[in-house]
Structure formats: C-alpha cells, structure tokens
Amino acid sequence: MPLRLRTKQGLQTLRRAHHFLVVREYSFALGEMAPHAAALAALATRLQQQTTEKDTHAQGARAATGAKNELGRALRQDYLRPVAEVAKKMFLDDPKVRLA
Q1: pLDDT at 1
Q2: Backbone dihedral angles phi then psi of residue 98, each to the nearest 5 degrees
Q3: pTM reported for the whole predicted model
C-alpha cells in the first residue's frame, strides 16, 4: 500500500520548500539560508525514511492479522465444526451437555 495521501503531500511540501531555498541564493539580515536548507533537506529525507518504515511495518501487521484470521477460520471450519456436529448427535438427550 502506498504512503497515505496526507503524508505524501506533507513530504512534497517539505521538498518544495527545500527546492525553493536551494534554487535561489537568499541572504537575509539573519544570515545565509544554506544551513537551514540543508537541515530542511535532511529532515525531509529522515521523515521519508521513517514514513516508509512505518508503512512497511503496517503492511506486515495487516498480513499477520490476515494470516491469523485465516488460521482461526480453518480451526473453526475444519476442526471445531465437525466436533460440534458429532457432539450434537451423540449427546442429543443428555441434559448436562449444553449444545448451541
């Protein structure tokens, strides 16, 4: 699954801001922008890596949940249902055994 739209848009905004600062050399009364542009580029790269890692973990969790659900379904269908059917037939008249 690709990155979420809002995350992609936020990262694109950071990259555009970095590009804007790097394309033109701005010098303000506060000093050069180069260190700030470099810091912004590093931040955008780090956020991209963290977001990709988080997305990968989320995909793994979804896959594991799907596998767990499939195993649970197989347990119910292949093992518990036949046992319940046999129990209904064997203990039909036994009041101590409650069958749903």
Answers
A1: 44
A2: -100, 120
A3: 0.48
